[in-house]
Amino acid sequence: MAMTLTKPARRWLDLPHGVKVEVEPLTTARATAARNEALKRAGAARAEVEAAEKAGQPMDALGFNAASSAALAGLTMEHEIEALARCGVTRGEGINGEDGQPLPVTPAACEALAQHDELGVAFWAAYTRPAREVAAEGEGSGTSAVSAGQPVP
Fold first, then answer.
1. Cys-Cys with 25: which of 8, 87, 91, 114 at CB 3.0–4.6 Å?
2. What single string gives the DSSP state of each residue in the chain?
3. Torsion angle (degrees, nearest 10) of CA 32, 33, 34, 36
4. C-alpha to C-alpha distance for 80 and 136, rounded to whole angstroms
């Protein structure tokens, strides 16, 4: 099978609540930069929290504090979504400020979109989908029972 290489174009992502964003293609450089920024920011947070933990920072109701691996994984993902939005979003529709006027695409607006529970996760899923599909195709095994969430016999 042959593949024709073409330069990827910008595309629109449909998100919940009638929000649409136009994004630059997700390149290896863009994805790596976002991931590295996220890891660096989470690492800095971990160092601060570990110091607080040594000073007796209490756990929350679920038994976590910000130094726990689950909390740090979530924080890292949040930072990655913010970085992807800042470097990838070029235009948006359906995103208004408190005054009801459309928000311009700014780093702060992209971070606010990424921090919204539904929009941030939907943005990440839609923006990274093509790369994740290519990676899965390259593995040559298709979806396994484990990755599909099915019990293994």
1. 8
2. ----------EEEE-GGG-EEEE----HHHHHHHHHHHHHHHHHHHHHHHHHHHTTPPP-TTS--TTSHHHHHHHHHHHHHHHHHHHHEEEEES-B-TTSSBPP--HHHHHHHHHSHHHHHHHHHHHHHHHHHHHHHHTSS---TTTTTPPP-
3. 80
4. 21
**What is the strand order of the sheet 20-23 is part of?**
11-14, 20-23, 89-93
List per-block mean pLDDT (blocks of 10 residues) for the chain, which spans 153 residues: 78 96 94 92 76 66 58 85 95 90 92 92 95 79 49 43
Q: Give CA–CA dist 19/80, Å, rounded.
A: 20
Tokens representing residue 56 in the block: 């007796």
Q: Is the pTM of this model over 0.90?
A: no
